[in-house]
Amino acid sequence: MTKQYLLGIDIGTSACKVALFGKDGKVEATVSEGYPVYYPHPGWAEQNPDEWWEAVCKAIWTVISSSGVSPDDIAGIGIDGQSWSAIAIDEEVKKYVMQKIMVAGSNGKAK
Question: Under a CB-based contact definition with an 8 Å cutoff, are residues 87 and 99 in contact?
Fold first, then answer.
């Protein structure tokens, strides 16, 4: 079979949303997998990048398995993420070194 589907992934501020589209634009399946926002101090808002990854993987698996579409039939993937999201990565262990500071919190603002 020819590749007839497109997968969209949106890693948002409260959930990862994944949608599978036919090339005609018809939505074949959608799912949303949430993750928490942590508030370690007043005015701070952070998220754990590992929880993003878990939500993305689960959402993709759910969309593909519920649609019955073979991953081999997906022609392309589009990915969108939170605005201005930078994650510090340790050079030695290739692991993030802190939670992701969210724009919604005041901990990322100049003092």
Answer: no
- Is 86 contained in some domain? yes
pTM of the model: 0.78
Residue ranges making up the domain that contains 70: 5-101
Task: Tell me the three-class secondary structure of 69-104, residue by residue.
Answer: CCHHHEEEEEEEECCCCCCCECCCCCCECCCEECCC
Distance of CA 102 to the CA centre of its chain: 14
Confirm if 18 and 9 have CB atoms less than 8 A apart. Answer: yes
What is the helix (H) or strand (E) element at residue 15, kind and residue range?
Answer: strand 15-22
21: CATH: 3.30.420.40
Query: Using CA atoms, how far apart are residues 1 and 81, in angstroms rounded to an integer?
Result: 31
pLDDT digits (tens, 9 = 90+) for 78-105: 999 876 667 767 777 666 656 666 655 5
Q: Are 36 and 106 in contact (CB under 8 A)?
A: no
In a domain, 106, yes or no: no
Listed residue (45, 44, 58) closest to 13, CA to CA = 45
